[in-house]
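Q: How do we represent a protein-ligand complex in a form that can be generated token by token?
A: Start from the inputs.
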Amino acid sequence: MLHQRLLGSADSLQKIIDIIPSPVFIKDEDHKWIFLNDAATRLLGGTREELLGRSEYDIFPAAQAALSWASDDEVLATGQMVESEECITLPISGDTHTMIMRKTLLHVPPGRRFLVGVASDVTEYRNAVAENHFLSRHDALTGLPNRIMFHEALNDAVTRGQREVDNIAVLLVDLDGFKAVNDAYGHEAGDELLRIVAARLKCCVRNGDLVARLGGDEFGVLLRGGPALQQAAERVATSICGAIAAPALLPQTQTRVSASVGITYFNCAQTKPEELIRQADLAMYSVKRSGRHGHKTYEPSLEATANRQLHADLLYALARQELHVAYQPLWNPPDGLLTGYEALLRWQHSHFGEISPRVFIPIAEQSGLIANFGAYVLRAACAAAHGWPEQVRLCVNISPMQLTDQCFAETVIQALTESGLAPDRLELEVTESRLTLDHEDALRQLRLLKEHGVQVAVDDFGTGAASLDMMHRFGLSRMKIDRRFISGLPDDERGYAIVRALIRLAHDLGAKVTAEGVEHMEQALCLMELGCDEMQGYLFGHPEAPRSVLTSQEAPLAVAVAR
Ligand code: C2E
Ligand code: CA
Ligand code: CA
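Then emit the structure tokens for the protein with calcium ion bound:
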């Protein structure tokens, strides 16, 4: 056979394996090289003639050679292919390479055995992976670990802490006055200041503790230790405050900032990493609010204080333009039509970021601010909706508290008049509650608005006791079925029965039905089959800023497929 003749000749075999870019070698049972391709010769250094008949012990340090011989012995003993990773230091350049070695046994009659090996140099790949890993976990500006690595380390520490009852301290460090430096001297000065701060922070901790830049001018410190950790953490916090407050020399100036530090400790197996960060953040915010520069340890009473602070901050939220309205689309899947938008209030807090309306609406209700907020939403949303196509209606949430305000109906009519929005395009969503029911004034105002053409829907239907009575007495135009009944569809048999009954009931009373919180196609199909008139949920769209609203009036792909 031609191929046997070809391979049978040592010369041909040499030519063939020389083409292979990876190092290939054949050894005898005494570990001596009897065959090397060009790549292997280059790797080992020297000429082929010099290398043949020698072994790793003639070239590499003994420990390295011993490792290679050990994997040779395994192949010889088992007859199986062996794959191993070997770190080799090259004799000529002295560079270290990571090689994946594959070795197998070759039987040549009569009764002779050889080892054939192929090596792949994965050094560059491994370096690239390591560099990528490093870059994605470090902050380019300061060289410190970033938020991702901080979270990984915290997760790790918490998981270990749960087993070993080890103590962990989390410190959040926020610079006071950084923005002023940035604004006054420019970004380059700001960047330099952050580098200086990073270097100082590292000097305040021991080797093995973690300092990370979490973003902007916020840093995180993770300390681990035994029972004396609390004293250590306080010491670190004090030295951080001192170090940051020292003057910093920037390119064109010398400046001074300070630090507010929040501390919390992991002491309960149930505490999640995010909860530790939230606690440290709360403690740090409390330092900020009480005049900055210093440190504070989290304690549960801070929660109540924070609530009071939120109260106080909420007072100024409107004036500081921290409130805005987002709009979530409502769809009629069978027709593939966009039918409306629900206006949802958003609060972008200067320190805590976005705060859920489920948190701040109750505070606004308690403090009476809801009347101002409600009027703001009505004005902003009616003005936005005026520009929408005629068939697209606007839904606005109304708190029962707003209905106790004598001027409520007037506020609504004023918002309509100012914007020019037709009253029948506005739908007020009222959550069922005792208050709405018992308050004659409230009902009177709603009736007045209804006469004016405004629609009224009952929100979160099924979560309170008053719905049916309210529907009966008031003749509401729409029922919104709460997400908790929708989430289990179509498999949850009880949920299915309830939704089916609610849809039938609403239709019998002459009202339309909107399903809330539709997230999956199966839920939408099931609701369509049950005759639901309208749907709202992440499947169709999230609440969005006004500028993104109405960029598409096409039914989403998912719905188009269903039709
Ligand atoms: P809601 O009236 O029941 O509004 C629907 C809530 O469900 C919104 O939360 C919305 O973002 C969320 N949602 C919509 N689709 C889905 C989904 O598919 N899955 C899930 N998991 N959630 C979905 P948001 O915006 O946080 O509002 C919470 C509540 O705050 C509202 O519940 C409403 O009761 C109240 N709220 C919001 N804006 C206002 C307002 O301007 N005035 C008053 N009085 N209350 C408001
Ligand atoms: Ca609503
Ligand atoms: Ca709702």
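The domain at 138-299 is CATH 3.30.70.270 (Alpha-Beta Plaits). Residues 552-563 have pLDDT under 50 and may be disordered.
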